[in-house]
């Protein structure tokens, strides 16, 4: 039997005893496997309550055999022997109880779960009562004299009157152990029997979305100083915000979903009607090319080879539903992979010339307003790499430039990096330095389709 099951049965038996349901209490105590001395003592008390002193005596025999120093066990067994008129055995039990008191005035069993204080003078008095029945009147007188000397001050028990009775050869009444008092299980162990809800009901504590209804729970993730990862400068647990995690992707363009047919991380090739603009090359199907545009959302467009800059802007405007006249277009170099700005038609023709041997072209669109029109507060530089732990996190590498869009709380920021928007711990980055000779560089905004 586990300790938890033992405490549970013990507690239920005590509750039954308090309700005066002796049968149930005895059944529960008897069901405990390998009972220790306290349980045996309790069973003896229950047997006395139901009027079965013989069974009580057997239980008390087990009590003192399991704990030979339990003075109250000998005291109670002496009482049972006395009522069964086994006076020599009773005198022996009281002598053992007195020896286990070890010259102390009393033993308080409260800390062991028994609301009883065994007094030395009580044991000596009962010894005198037993000695009277054995005809040992002189010994009974000496026992009473010792009881009077060990009686605490303020106690009004008439031991002197009892001594006079002994002188007159009158038997003494036995002092009895209080009925119904038993050893109870530790209170702290009983309290731990029932499960406790230490977390409580989860609720949104912080969100960048004022309409956030998310009520899930995600444990805090304190950052540890390990392998170069810093501790947060704020003491206490991280106040990690909860963000919207609804299944549908939310576009950063004023909180509205992306245009139809465009999804985050998806690749589409819609049929586009290109407006007739001077500089457009032949519309033969053989001259078409797949144009991959990197924004907050990445998509693939089919565009005629040799399209001019106004044509490309018109295509982006048609898909993003935004004015992009001031946006900076760049294309990816086929060999180096670096983005080269398209400053005019000459640069545009050079782009098509370099893309002549390939039917795919990667275009980068960045504007003066970043992330779907949201204003960039400032920029920071990543001092450590951060791996996303959830869909709302922003993943970046050491040295990346981060566009800060909002300050979620003292420890978390919302930022933008490499076409992605998310939150990250503030301690992973520091403010980007700006020289006095040059004005601060406007952070690039990456539009996605």
Automatic annotation (TrEMBL):
Gene Ontology cellular component terms for the protein in this record: cytoplasm
Taxonomically, the superkingdom here is: Eukaryota
- GO terms for biological process, alphabetical: superoxide anion generation
For the keyword Nucleus, the answer is no
Q: Which UniProt keywords apply?
A: Cytoplasm, Repeat, SH3 domain, TPR repeat
Q: Name the gene behind this protein.
A: NOXA1
**Domain SH3 positions:** 375-434
Tell me which Gene3D superfamilies the record gives: Phosphatidylinositol 3-kinase Catalytic Subunit, Chain A, domain 1, SH3 Domains, Tetratricopeptide repeat domain
What is the protein's given name? NADPH oxidase activator 1
GO molecular function annotations of the record: superoxide-generating NADPH oxidase activator activity
Q: Where in the cell is it found?
A: Cytoplasm
Q: Per the UniProt entry, what species is this protein from, by scientific name?
A: Sarcophilus harrisii (Tasmanian devil)
Q: Which family does it belong to?
A: Belongs to the NCF2/NOXA1 family.
Its chief place of residence is cytoplasm
Keyword Repeat attached: yes
């Amino acid at each position: 039997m586990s300790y938890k099951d033992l405490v549970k049965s013990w507690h239920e038996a005590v509750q039954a005893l308090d309700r005066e349901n002796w049968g149930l209490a005895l059944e529960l105590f008897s069901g405990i496997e390998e009972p220790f001395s306290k349980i045996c003592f309790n069973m003896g008390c229950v047997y006395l309550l139901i009027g079965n002193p013989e069974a009580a005596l057997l239980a008390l025999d087990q009590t003192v055999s399991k704990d030979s120093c339990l003075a109250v066990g000998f005291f109670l067994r002496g009482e049972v022997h006395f009522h069964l008129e086994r006076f020599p055995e009773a005198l022996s039990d009281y002598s053992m109880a007195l020896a286990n008191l070890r010259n102390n005035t009393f033993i308080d069993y409260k800390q062991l779960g028994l609301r009883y204080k065994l007094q030395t003078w009580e044991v000596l008095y009962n010894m005198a009562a037993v000695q009277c029945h054995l005809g040992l009147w002189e010994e009974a007188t000496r026992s009473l004299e010792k009881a009077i000397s060990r009686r605490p001050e303020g106690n009004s028990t008439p031991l002197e009157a009892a001594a006079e009775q002994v002188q007159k050869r009158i038997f003494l009444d036995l002092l009895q152990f209080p009925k119904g008092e038993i050893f109870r299980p530790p209170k702290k162990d009983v309290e731990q029997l029932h499960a406790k809800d230490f977390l409580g009901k989860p609720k949104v504590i912080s969100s960048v979305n004022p309409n956030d209804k998310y009520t899930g729970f995600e444990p805090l993730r304190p950052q540890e100083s390990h392998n170069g990862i810093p501790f947060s400068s704020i003491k206490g647990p991280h106040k990690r915000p909860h963000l919207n995690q609804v299944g549908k992707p939310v576009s950063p363009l004023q909180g509205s979903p992306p245009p139809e047919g465009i999804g985050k991380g998806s690749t589409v090739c819609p049929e586009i009607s290109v407006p007739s603009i001077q500089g457009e090359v032949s519309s033969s199907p053989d001259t078409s090319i797949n144009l991959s545009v990197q924004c907050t959302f990445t998509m693939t467009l089919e565009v005629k080879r040799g399209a001019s800059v106004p044509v490309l802007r018109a295509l982006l405007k048609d898909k993003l539903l935004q004015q992009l006249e001031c946006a900076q277009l760049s294309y990816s170099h086929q060999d180096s992979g670096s983005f080269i700005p398209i400053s005019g038609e000459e640069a545009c023709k050079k782009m098509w010339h370099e893309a002549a041997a390939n039917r795919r072209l990667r275009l980068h669109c960045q504007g003066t307003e970043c992330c779907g029109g949201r204003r960039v507060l400032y920029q920071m530089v990543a001092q450590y790499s951060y791996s996303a732990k959830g869909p709302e996190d922003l993943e970046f590498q050491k040295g990346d430039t981060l566009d800060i869009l909002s300050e979620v709380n003292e420890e978390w920021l919302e930022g933008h990096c490499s076409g992605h928007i998310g939150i990250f711990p503030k301690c992973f980055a520091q403010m980007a330095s700006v020289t006095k000779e040059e004005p601060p560089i406007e952070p690039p905004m990456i539009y996605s389709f």
